[in-house]
Amino acid sequence: MVDEVASEQGFLTPTGEPVNLAATLFFETPEEIFRRVHREIRPRSPLPPIAVEFKQFANADSHVRLAEGRIEVRITDLLEGAPAPVTEALAHILLGKLYRRPAEKQFNHRYRLYLNRKDMRRRIGLVRQARGRKVHTGPEGSEHHLEEVFEELNARHFGGMMARPALGWSHSRSRTRLGHFDPSHNMIMISRVFDDPRTPRLALEYVMFHEMLHLQYPVDHRGSRRCVHTPEFKAHEKLFPQFREARALLKKLPI
Ligand SMILES: [Zn+2]
């Protein structure tokens, strides 16, 4: 019965995971779901007023805060109309954050499984594309032109066959996010830290090569797992000449 209801809503239940009957059999508003979950996880405390709002964020994030004794929940509008078990899982996750008591594994799993569905990934990608702010500048740096670097590597390692995506330098000299391929914008972003005469070009070339491999090897989605660096990806990456030397350089980037 539970499974029938769940699958009618298009929600897949991983085998063995109990789905709360109350969440699937009755139509609860998101506020009611949050109130019920609050009572479940804090049975002894008085129930504060809870307000739930759906907002247009540039990503699939949701937020919770306690303001003047009131719990304010802001959920991405991507989850407006999500099946009740998903809203229930999100309630466990957000209230767990608020009270610093992490939600049970099953709720994280259920929530991630939903966001990882093909149709959801597509919608998230479209929303990012339409609403996201640009955090990069163009390909021309003061030391290196990213299009030149890309085409050089393209000729050397990909037979010149790779279609060039948009390329840009990040605004900040991030040393934690050295490069990034964003499939929704078809764009490679490289940290400004490499546009520096003190940074050897080899380091920049290696990071660019790594991001180019992301173009060649799409992310492998299996269930709730997201494998970005597949075994094929890693094997290909090791073919980069001076692989070890380049990786060692990344640990000595100038500040
Ligand atoms: Zn990567």
Describe the protein.
By secondary structure, the protein is an alpha/beta fold. The chain has two domains: 2-131, Zincin-like, CATH 3.30.2010; 146-252, Zincin-like (2-Layer Sandwich), CATH 3.30.2010.10. Helices cover 42% and strands 14% of the residues. The chain is built from ten helices and eight strands. The protein has helices at residues 2-8, 21-25, 30-41, 84-98, 105-115, 118-131, 146-157, 201-216, 231-237, 243-249; strands spanning 50-55, 63-67, 70-76, 166-169, 179-182, 187-190, 220-222, 225-227. Strands 1-3-2 form a three-stranded mixed sheet, covered by helices on one side. α3 packs across α4 (84-98), α4 packs across α5 and α8 (201-216) crosses α10. The longest helix is centred in the last third of the chain and has 16 residues, at 201-216. The protein binds zinc ion (ZN).
How is the biggest beta sheet arranged?
3 strands, mixed
Number of helices: 10
Query: What portion of residues is helical?
Result: 40-55%
- Which architecture name of the largest domain does CATH use? 2-Layer Sandwich
Q: Supply the helix-strand structural class.
A: alpha/beta
Q: Give the amount of beta strand, in percent.
A: 5-15%
Principal-axis shape:
elongated
CATH topology of the largest domain: Zincin-like
Count of β-strands: 8
Overall pLDDT score: 86
What is the count of distinct domains? 2
